[in-house]
Batch of 2 targets.
Target 1
Amino acid sequence: MKKIVCFHLYNDYSGSPKVFSMIIRGLLSKGYQIELYTSRTEGFLTDIDGVTYHTFSYKWTKSKVMTLFRMFYAQLYIFISSLKYKQKKDTLFYINTICPVGAAFSALLNHIPVLYHVHEKYVNPNALHLFYEKTWKICATRTIFVSKYLQKQYDKKNMESVVVYNTLSEEFLSHIEIKNKRSRPYNILMISSLKIYKGVDVLVELAKRLPQYNFSLVLNSSQSEITSFFSGISSNLKIYPAQPTVYKFLHEADLVLNLSNPSLWVETFGLTLLEAMAYQLPVICPPVGGPIELVKNDENGFCIDSRNMDELIEKIIYILESGNYERLSKNAKAQSLLFDYGNMIDEIENQIKRV
C-alpha cells in the first residue's frame, strides 16, 4: 500500500497532531504518497511538504451548540469526500485519535483497511466520546496505542493492537541546546492546554507559594483566551500563547511540570516530559497513566498527584536545591535516548504492511 490517506479532526499545536506530523514526514521519506484531511487551522499539520491536503472549516467555540454543528459538518465532509477511494485497492486509511468517525464509516462502507492511532482515554466520557470509541472498535483493522497504560484501558478482545511510543523528531533534536550553567532564580516551565483538568490553576498557586522561583506557562490558546481566563497572577509567573516551537522555553528552564488532575484527566503518554528530558531537565508528573512509563521517582524526576500541594512544593525544592540536580538531569537525558524516531517510523511502517 503506497497511498495512505490520513485523517485528523482538529489541527493545532497540541501533542497528537505534533506526533502525527512527525509520522507523516517519516512515511513521506519512505516513499509513501500521503493525502491529509484536517481542519483549516494553524498547527503542526500545516504546510507539510509533499502532502496533498483536503481541509475543512472546523474549530472550537464557547458555544457548545455551534461547536457541535461544526463538528457534524466536518465529519460529513470527511465521509463524503473520502468515498472516492472506493476503487483504489492500494489505499489505507490512517486515522489519528478516535475522533474522525466520518473516515471510519467511509472505510467500512468501501471495505478499506483502517489503521487507528489512539492517544486518548476519557476519564468521564460523554455520549459523543462513547460513540467515537464504539465506532473505532467496529471499524479498526489494527490499532496503535501510545503507551502500555492506554492499551490496558481498553477491551482487547478481538482487537489487533500494538504499543508504539511517541518520540522526538529529528528537527526537534537538532535544536537542543543545554545550559552550560544554571543560575538563580531558577525557572520552572509547564506546557499545557488551557484547561482546569490540566492543572493550570495549580501552577498559579505554586507561583504564589514559591516566589523565589520564576514560572512560565505556555498554553495552546490565543492571547485573548488567556486574558479572559486569568486574573490576579503573581509577578513571577509569565503566561504565553500557542507557540510553533518551544525550544527557547526549554533552554531557559530548570524543571518541567505536568500537573494534570488524575480525577479529571489521565495523561496517556506525556510528550512534553520527553521533550524536557531531552534537554536534560528533571520533571514532575502525575502518578498514573503513561507518564509513569517515562518517569521514575528520584531518578529523573517525581510522580506526584497535583492535588497534593505540600508534596509538590517539597519535591520542587528538593530537585532544585538539594544537590541532586546533576544526577537527575543526567538520568533524564539517558531516558530520553531510549525513544528513537527512526525506530518509531520503522515500527509504524511494519504495522502498515501488516494491515
Note: The mean pLDDT is 95.
Target 2
Amino acid sequence: MAMIQFTRNYTDRSNDYGFQFEFFCDKCGNGHMSPFIANKAGLASGLLKAAGSFFGGSLSRVAYAGDHVKDALRGGAWDEAYGQAVGEAKQHFKHCTRCGRWVCPQVCWNEARSLCEACAPDLQEEAVHIQANVAVEQAWRKARQVDQVASLDMKAPRSVASSVCPHCQARVDGGKFCGECGKPLAAAKAHCTQCGGEMKPQARFCSDCGTARGG
C-alpha cells in the first residue's frame, strides 16, 4: 500500500455537503486549498430534508433514512476525497528527501540544491540576514562608546522636589522660571520671626524653636 502524504499538516474543511482540505507548508505555514468535492449522499439528504420540512409526512422519514445512508458512506467517500486532494496538493509542494518535509516552492525551497531551505539555506538570503545582524551589533557597540548623557551634571545634588515648581507643583526640566505659572523656581528664603532660623519652603513650623510660620 502506498504511503499517504500530508498526514501531519492539513486541516479538514469538509461538511455534510462535500469534502475540502487545506494543506500547509511544513516550514512557513503557507497553504493550498483543495477543490471542493461534492458528497452526493449528503446533497441528497439535504434536499430531502428541505422537502420534508415543507411537505412533511413520508418525505421527512425518507430524509432521516438518508442521514443513515450518508453516515454509512461517509468513511469511504471521505477517504476517496482525501486521496484525490492529496494527489492534487502534491503538485503545489516540494518534498525534501533529507528531512521529509513538504514545503512551498515559492518561499521555502532551494531549487539549486533540491532541498528545503531548512536543510540547505539560500546563501544570498543568509548573507543579507547576517549583514543586518552584524550592523545591529555594531550600532550597539558604537552607541556604548559615546557619552549619551554628557549634559547631565551628576555632581549637583538632586531630589524629587527639585524637579517640581514650588508654586504650582508642575514638573520642570530646569531653568529659572516655571513654564506653567511663570514664577521663579527658587523659592524665596523664609526665616523664623522668633529665632531668625531659616525655614524650608513647605515648613509650617520652625525646626529650631517650633514657632509657627508667620507667628
Note: The chain has two domains: 10-116, 160-215.
